[in-house]
Amino acid sequence: MATRPTIIIADDHPLFRTALTNIVTSEFGETDLVEASDFASLQQSTDKHQDARLILLDLHMPGVEGFSALVHLTAHFPNIPVIIVSAHEEPEIMRRALDHGASGFLPKSCPPEVMQQALNTVIQGHLWLPPGVEQTPTANEQELDVAEALATLTPQQFRVATMVNQGMLNKQIAYELDVTEATIKAHMTEIFRKLGVHSRTQVALTMEQLAVNPTSAFEAGRPS
User: Fold this and answer.
1) Under 8 Å between Cβ of 205 and 217
2) Of 118, 144, 141, 147, whose CA–CA distance to 131 is shortest?
3) What pTM value is reported for the model?
4) Cross-strand partners of 24
5) 117-149 pLDDT, tens per residue?
């Protein structure tokens, strides 16, 4: 008996998760749907369902910055296609998503029939963007370099980096992850090395480059 395909829906809005669930069920019938409401639950879901057929990912997930969740997923689960589902409709943001490994981009304003078309296109191994949006790269070289560095972080290191980006101290991160402070310090050493930075502030500035609307703080504030 064939196993039912697993699709992960990652969005912090329950009503929209329900809407996506209805669309997926209508299009694919018997499917194992897994829901995630923040980045921590998304990590747990992908770890448990590494054979998932598809991830539908909100661009603004609690606990993670902009495109960084996408970069992390495509680095560690390259066989699972990711469609960004977002309220953003700017073509540049859609194309940046593809630059960072997304297989498609769906504005939340799309009608259900367009969403169904996008799901089918991506599951068949193709890229999908709304009609009229070109697939030309738009992410700059610096942003791509940051994404490449972030992709080298282990899942736990990435989680620590996202918490640093939220302003949490080592003691708070250790409590949240149920590990020792010494473990967090070891992770920080590796994060600094892999990102080529020397301070917690620089970690935050680096991750800011993958925000949907990055500031110029990285260029102005990162010491040489």
Assistant:
1) yes
2) 118
3) 0.89
4) none
5) 999 999 999 999 998 888 887 888 999 999 999
Q: Measured between alpha carbons, how far is 163 from 184 in angstroms, rounded to an integer?
A: 11
CA distance linking residue 180 with residue 17, whole number of Å: 35
Do the bridges between strand 104-107 and strand 32-36 make them parallel or antiparallel, or are there none, so unpaired?
unpaired
Residues 6+ apart with CB under 8 A from 186: none
Q: What is the tens place of the pLDDT at every residue in 63-108? A: 887 999 999 999 999 999 999 999 999 999 999 999 999 999 999 9
Residues of the chain with CATH 3.40.50.2300: 6-123
E-assigned strand segments in 48-164 = 54-58, 82-86, 104-107
Where, residue-wise, is CATH 1.10.10.10 in the chain?
Answer: 141-221
12 closest CA partner among 73, 59, 67: 59
Look-up of token digits 């661009």: 59
DSSP for residue 204: H
Q: In the CATH scheme, what is the homologous superfamily, with its name and number, of domain 6-123?
A: Response regulator (3.40.50.2300)
Supply angle C-alpha 102, 103, 108, rounded to 5. 80
Top CATH class, 141-221 = mainly alpha
What secondary structure does DSSP assign to 5-37, as a single string? PEEEEE-S-HHHHHHHHHHHHHHHSS-EEEEES
